[in-house]
Amino acid sequence: MKNNFEALAQNVSLIHEATSTAAKGAVNQLLTVRNWIIGYYIVEYEQHGNDRAAYGTNLLQSLAESISIKGLDRQMLNTCRIFYQRYPQICDSVSRRLKTITSESHPAAPALPENVLPTVIENPNAICDSVSRKFELDPEVLITKLSFTHIRKILPIDDPLERFFYELETIRCGWSVRELDRQIGSQLFFRSGISKDPEKLLQELASDQKNALMPIKSPYVFEFLGLNANETVAESDFEQAIMDHLQEFLLEMGKGFCFEARQKRIVIDGDYYFADLVLYNRLLHCNVIIELKVDKFRYEYFGQLNSYVSYYKDCEMVEGDNPPIGILLCTEKGPKMVEYVLNGMDEQLFIATYMLQLPNKDQLRNFLMKQKEEMGI
After folding, report:
1. Distance (Å, rounded) from C-alpha 14 to C-alpha 253?
2. Which CATH class is domain 220-355?
3. For the segment 215-227, what is each residue's pLDDT rounded down to a tens digit?
4. Residue 174 and residue 61: Cα distance in Å, rounded?
5. CA neighbor of 118 nearest in space, from 99, 103, 105
6. Among 80, 126, 301, 352, which lies 20 to 30 A Cα-Cα from 249?
7. pLDDT at 101 over 70
8. pLDDT for 112
């Protein structure tokens, strides 16, 4: 393959034309193939192009302007480049599909020159062998089961294990692109990784959508607070750390949260009480009262939260508001005690755990290998 800019632009154009013509009933698969090959050409040019210095950091913009193909702008070309680097293992499958595109089964597709196709499969294992195969999907499964729109959502994730998790669960659960995006945003990978029963957690997510607007996570991950999980943390320090990182906290809580009050004074029977945090969710149109605890769940904590929620329902709701929600955040919770406490209680009360540091991934690795074997992929 010639390593000059004109050859790069020509190869990208040829690959685009060939895959577009042959697409028909396999648009997504061929789009994936096209984008991987384009990424390959760009990386090869960056490494070996004999005139690459003339384009430098403007390479992708210059290439986009030169080929003038709708949808292949500078940003998309960079996505193709990352795709090639993230998924070297699909090189053989891509090569076979390119040969199919140029065979008699697709007579309308333009023939690719001999100096284009062979370079794609030249020493295919050189890059593939540089990464672990243990947590990879079979290349054919990746291409046939995931659309490139799904893949594009997963590409920004640096950790190969985390990417593998979302690939596997998207296929297993049949997630739409929107649902995949929601699960990535809710940090499902980390919540599954530290769950005592990750399989049960994923089953519940697949079957229960009643809290779709504001899913109650367990655990929440508050690593951004900068608190050491191995040291004693006072509730006041925990609360102050949240206020210092309020934006990150609201994003971790979910969609639509707005801050309303800290240490909100409540008067009941002439006595003063103070709710740790009061938020408002503009999607649910209700207040959310949060109690922060730096130890494991105790039943008296729940009674305290229930009183605050009842007070808000009776005294603070205004026209247009829905009943308030209460969330008790603690370091751990016994499943039986939680079951007994919640029995017969208002469905607007929740008990959730949080973590100050991210978990060890060994448990999740074992779980993913089991899932992969059960799916036969």
Report:
1. 47
2. alpha beta
3. 566 667 777 787 7
4. 36
5. 99
6. 301
7. no
8. 62
Residue type, 160: P
Count of beta carbons in the 10 Å neighbourhood of residue 101: 24
Q: How far apart are CA 166 and CA 226, in angstroms?
A: 27
Tell me the two tokens of residue 27: 């648009």
- Counting every residue written for the chain, the total comes to 377
Higher pLDDT, 185 or 276: 276
pTM: 0.57
Tens of pLDDT along 131-159?
Answer: 456 678 888 899 989 999 999 999 999 88
What's the chain look like in SS3?
CCCCHHHHHHHHHHHHHHHHHHCHHHHHHHHHHHHHHHHHHHHHHHHHCCCHHHCHHHHHHHHHHHHCCCCCCHHHHHHHHHHHHHCHHHHHHHHHHHHHHCCCCCCCCCCCCCCCHHHHHCCCHHHHCCCCCCCCCCHHHHHHHCCHHHHHHHCCCCCHHHHHHHHHHHHHHCCCHHHHHHHHHCCHHHHHHCCCCHHHHHHHHHHCCCCCCCCCCCCEECHHHCCCCCCCCCHHHHHHHHHHCHHHHHHHHCCCEEEEEEEEEEEECCEEEEEEEEEEECCCCEEEEEEECCCCCCHHHHHHHHHHHHHHHHHCCCCCCCCCEEEEEECCCCHHHHHHHHCCCCCCEEEEEEECCCCCCHHHHHHHHHHHHHHCC
Tokens encoding 140: 């054919």
**How far is C-alpha 204 from the geometric centre of its chain's CA atoms?**
18
**Which residues 6+ apart lie within 8 Å of 254 measured at CB?**
186, 214, 215, 217, 281
Q: Both tokens of residue 244?
A: 């210092």
**Residue-level pLDDT at 333:** 78
Task: Residue 276: name the closest of 244, 250, 239 by CA.
Answer: 239
Who wins on pLDDT, 341 or 374? Answer: 374
Tokens 């739409």 — which residue? 176
Strands 286-292 and 257-268: unpaired
Give the residue among 336, 332, 334, 338 at the shortest CA–CA distance from 353. 332
Q: What strand order describes the sheet that includes 220-221?
A: 220-221, 349-355, 325-330, 286-292, 271-281, 257-268
- The CA-to-CA distance between both ends of the chain, in Å, stands at 35
Cα 276 to Cα 101, 256, 269, distances in angstroms: 63, 19, 20
